[in-house]
């Protein structure tokens, strides 16, 4: 199936060809695009944060995976097809058509802040992991990872992001799945079903309002996200955009399962027999649950591979954040406000 509409804008051309020239079959194209959207969603903050939330608050209060799942599906059903059929380049295009440049500039600032804070969270996840396993200082880990990601994103743009996302997703899956058998069979872990009351958590009706607030924020916050739209707007049709959203949502939920198990392990393990001496939760180190479980309950080689999975998750999300914010600035702000003819 050949694309009949060849694009007028270079940014759109990059978005289109980065996902379409890899293979000649529709199935393989959608599969590779699905990997890029999954790698973007499954970031370091998503992986580390889920394990932390399971260990500290329980599954009942771990709302990010379910919110992202529903948010991506809603985005696909309600927005992806319409925006792709209108040949938009960024998520700000419809706002710019209706409300003009001034309001779009304000919306862009809000989106930029979101990307900056999100990038900071995933870099923090990487820094804590590296500091636990290989004793790399937090600052060095963050600066090095940022530099590598910025360089390959600037040089290759969307093409490099698409290729690296596929490799990173495979590494994420391999690293986390590889670690699970070693963790679950460790003599200091035991049967996690015995601590299910802890890691499943409880729901107090008096906190129902707070629960719904968090759930709505996680769900609706997934939709106005340029990293997501730059994927769905690169496919050939609105229908494919919808399919990509639903498949990407399902993949994100599946890929978080290792983090859920690791969080459950943290609540059941006998930390007194480890070098740590106490559980991370007792030491107020809940944010380091995932790397500490890898360090204490897997062989060193497996722990390093698991760390590599976290690093890949960070880079796969960070490059999309950089490209998303920069493309909105270039196309919607710079070209429309400062270079108007």
* CATH fold call: Sodium/glucose cotransporter
Q: Sketch the major β-sheet.
A: none
Q: What is the average of the pLDDT values?
A: 81
User: What is the end-to-end distance?
Assistant: 37 Å
Series of secondary-structure elements, N-terminal to C-terminal: HHHHHHHHHHHHHH
* CATH architecture descriptor text: Up-down Bundle
SS element count, helices = 14
Low-pLDDT parts are: 1-27
Shape from CA axes? globular
Over the alpha carbons, how many angstroms does the gyration radius reach?
Answer: 21 Å
Full CATH superfamily name: Sodium/glucose cotransporter
* CATH C-level name: Mainly Alpha
Helix-and-strand structural type = mainly alpha
Number of DSSP strands?
0
Task: Provide the descriptors you would attach to this structure in a database record.
single chain, Sodium/glucose cotransporter, mainly alpha, 341 residues, disordered N terminus
